[in-house]
UniProtKB/TrEMBL annotation:
Domain YbaK/aminoacyl-tRNA synthetase-associated: from-to ranges: 26-144
Protein name: YbaK/EbsC family protein
Classification via SUPFAM superfamilies: YbaK/ProRS associated domain
A Pfam family it matches: tRNA_edit
Record-linked CDD domains: YbaK_like
Amino acid sequence: MTETGRDRVTTDARARGLDIDIVPRPAADSLESAARLLGIEPSGIVKSLVVKRHDGDYLFALVPGDRQISWAKLRALVGVNKLSLPHEDVALAATGYSRGTITPLGSTTPWPVFADERLRGNRVAMGAGEHGYSAFVDADALIDAYGATVADITDPLKPRA
């Protein structure tokens, strides 16, 4: 039997002593729609972004749904001059997860985790390794389980044109 993305998430969470709740979620056309379907504010959804370093390695940036990466802040924290969001095929190869399902939990490679400080003290929803599901987890426990670097790495979302 083939292991699903949800299986990998659950197995990794259990190994790290994390209490997660994976819930089914209908397809959503935006982060705001997903938040409504889950009954939470957009800030309660964590975007798990795969970020490529200039040396070819990756990292995870955990960003509240109502914010965006501040490239200048993240570059300064990581100590590099260049970071980028890879194409979705590259992110899939780096994590084993497709866009919209990405999470550090169960990633095929354990990349370093950088979390925005605004996640502290919250129970959040994030990708569950498989489309149609979200994983709820205590952000502090997730941060601690990964030894994540916590800092101000985001800016407010810019209004869409």
